[in-house]
């Protein structure tokens, strides 16, 4: 059953506040013609570099690509990757509230690509300063009244140290809260409207399950223990399942061809956020987010889904 898609005008009238860990996705593309004489590894002759928004920045880009206005609140360093992020965000019409941390190395994920295959990924990162995170909390409180919904993109990099207080402020202001979670302690997400773990992330918190009845019991206990409105479990080739106060709703996978799952979770939660902000019901928003996830895994690297693709 297809779900109704809001008009472009309805989506454009809404604004989503995206908060979380950002990163610069750097791709080095090159030719592979020989094996190194120094070690049994391929030699890549780099021919071009590609830069993309990653982490919470990719989430904000996915929101914006659907036509909904997006504001990104995050911490970056005072370095070249931060300059590249600022440029990319400006080019893509994403409003930014960036807090600078001179001690922070802006997160970079460097992927070396040879013959259209990822050969290695190298990460550069450290955690932000606590004083800057306090400034980020102040900025969050200032931004809340301007937005219809809050989306937290948690990559476990330290940028959401104050998320319990942020959720409390958002709920007090009557704003729905969506969270892409990370780690083994979901108590910090208490009060969220929806959390969107994948299978591995959920198992890290609840333990592995034996069949659907066991999964239902574990998710029910989790919802009760931490006080979240709904859990949307993304299940790769099995689609996604929504657990909320009305029961369980399952949507089968829609992917025609899986090329690259990088950033698929970003697309799912961004689509969900844009649609919920525009007044779409949770079951219908889930169906459309599932469709968006099926489209984006057919693309290379961190990617987005347009309104026209979602409408097709």
Give a verbal description of the structure.
InterPro entries: Carboh/pur_kinase_PfkB_CS, PfkB_dom, RfaE_dom_I, Ribokinase-like. Pfam families: PfkB. One of its GO terms (molecular function) is kinase activity. The chain has helices at 8-12, 56-65, 80-91, 130-143, 163-172, 199-206, 211-226, 264-277, 282-296, 307-311; strands at 15-20, 22-35, 42-55, 69-77, 95-101, 108-114, 117-124, 149-153, 177-180, 194-195, 230-234, 240-244, 247-251. The protein has 312 residues and is an alpha/beta fold. The protein has a single domain (8-23, 53-105, 126-311), classed as Ribokinase (UDP-N-acetylmuramoyl-L-alanine:D-glutamate ligase), CATH 3.40.1190. The strands form two sheets. Strands 5-4-1-8-9-10-11-12-13 form a nine-stranded mixed sheet, with helices on both faces. A four-stranded mixed sheet has the order 3-2-6-7. Strand 8, helix 5 and strand 9 (177-180) form a beta-alpha-beta unit. Helix 2 (56-65) packs across helix 8 and helix 8 runs antiparallel to helix 9 (282-296). The radius of gyration is 19 Å and the shape is globular. 42% of the residues are buried.
Residue windows where pLDDT falls under 50 for at least 5 positions: none
Strand order, largest beta sheet: 5-4-1-8-9-10-11-12-13
What is the typical, i.e. mean, pLDDT? Answer: 92
Query: Would you report the number of β strands?
Result: 13
How many helices?
A: 10
Major sheet: 9 strands, mixed
Q: Rounded to an integer, what's the Rg over CA atoms?
A: 19 Å
Structural class based on helices, strands and sheet pairing: alpha/beta
CATH class: Alpha Beta
Strand and helix order: HEEEHEHEEEHEHEEHHEEEHHH
The general outline is globular
Question: What portion of residues belong to β-strands?
Answer: 25-35%
Using the coordinates shown, work out and report the CATH topology: UDP-N-acetylmuramoyl-L-alanine:D-glutamate ligase
Keywords: Kinase, Transferase
Domain Carbohydrate kinase PfkB: 14-304
GO molecular function: kinase activity
InterPro entries: Carboh/pur_kinase_PfkB_CS, PfkB_dom, RfaE_dom_I, Ribokinase-like
């Amino acid at each position: 059953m297809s779900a109704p898609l809001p008009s472009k005008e309805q989506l454009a009238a809404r604004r989503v506040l995206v908060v979380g860990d950002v990163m610069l996705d750097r791709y080095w593309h090159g030719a592979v013609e020989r094996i190194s004489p120094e070690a049994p590894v391929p030699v890549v002759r780099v021919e071009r570099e590609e830069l993309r928004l990653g982490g919470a920045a990719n989430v904000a880009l996915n929101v914006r690509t659907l036509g909904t206005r997006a504001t990104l609140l995050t911490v970056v360093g005072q370095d070249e990757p931060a300059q590249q992020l600022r440029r990319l965000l400006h080019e893509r019409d994403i409003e930014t509230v960036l807090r600078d941390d001179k001690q922070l190395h802006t997160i970079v994920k460097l992927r070396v690509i040879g013959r259209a295959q990822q050969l290695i990924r190298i990460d550069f990162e450290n955690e932000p300063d606590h004083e800057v995170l306090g400034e980020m909390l102040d900025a969050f409180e200032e931004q809340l009244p301007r937005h219809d919904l809050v989306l937290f993109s948690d990559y476990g990099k330290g940028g959401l140290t104050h998320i319990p207080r942020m959720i409390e402020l958002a709920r007090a202001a009557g704003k729905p809260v969506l969270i892409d979670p990370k780690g083994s302690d979901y108590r910090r997400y208490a009060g969220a409207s929806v959390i969107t773990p994948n299978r591995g992330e959920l198992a890290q918190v609840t333990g592995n399950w034996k069949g659907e009845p066991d999964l239902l019991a574990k998710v029910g206990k989790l919802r009760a223990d931490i006080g979240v409105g709904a859990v949307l479990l993304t299940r790769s080739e099995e689609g996604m399942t929504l657990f909320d106060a009305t029961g369980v709703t399952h949507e089968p996978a829609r992917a025609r061809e899986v090329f690259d799952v990088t950033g698929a979770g970003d697309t799912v939660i961004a689509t969900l956020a844009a649609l919920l902000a525009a007044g779409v019901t949770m079951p219908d928003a889930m169906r459309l987010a599932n469709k968006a996830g099926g489209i984006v895994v057919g693309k290379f690297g961190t990617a987005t889904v347009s309104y026209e693709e979602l409408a097709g």
